[in-house]
Amino acid sequence: MKLRKYLWELAKIFRKGNIVRIKPTMRCNLSCPYCSVNKAHGRAPEFIELHYYHWVRIIKGNEPVKMVVISGGEPGLYDCVNLLINWCVGRGYLVQVITNLTNISKFRRIYKSWRVIFLSTYHPVGSLERYLMNYNELSRKFYITVRELRPADDMLPQHIPWAQVKAISDSQDETPMKIYAPDGSVHDSCQALDRAGE
Which of 8, 75, 79, 87 is the most buried (most CB within 10 A)? Predict the structure, then answer.
């Protein structure tokens, strides 16, 4: 039922309303060798991370807003991610959180709502046991869809039977879209942000 409501609201977004994409942090607690950010820098780029009030101003400045997409880095490492998501839900926005689901302490503080959906990326370099434990806990409150990320040349069987394998390639995330970096700077695509500061 909550997914049906979410998808119905999502369909209406394409008729009217902005989608705001923010990356409040570029930090990550995994070091995947196939990460597009690490490919560009050898490490995650360092940004000054702003308080969630800054993101509130950016979201308000993009009215009419229908959806806020929060990713990173790993958004679970951003101190105010729960406050930001709760503020968005209180305003009636749909929220997508793109996360590796390995650090959910802040996500536990999000209000239960059908307006929040998690797009989880499972990485074989992490702990499958911990991932599944976090998945099971959060899935009782929110809808979570999973894709497994691995190098394009990795032909090993999938670790998770319900995950869709997604190959990483140099052309990933070239789709033109406005992305807000942790310091509030604006980039034309995820790839442009990944390569910022080269």
Answer: 75
DSSP class of residue 43 equals: S
Could you tell me the domains of the chain? 2-190 (3.20.20.70)
Q: List helix spans (H) across the chain.
A: 2-13, 36-41, 52-60, 81-90, 128-139, 190-194
55: pLDDT strictly greater than 80: yes
pLDDT tens column, 88-122: 999 999 999 999 999 999 999 999 999 999 999 88
Q: For residues 158 and 183, is the Cβ–Cβ distance under 8 A? A: no
- More confident of the two residues 34 and 13: 34
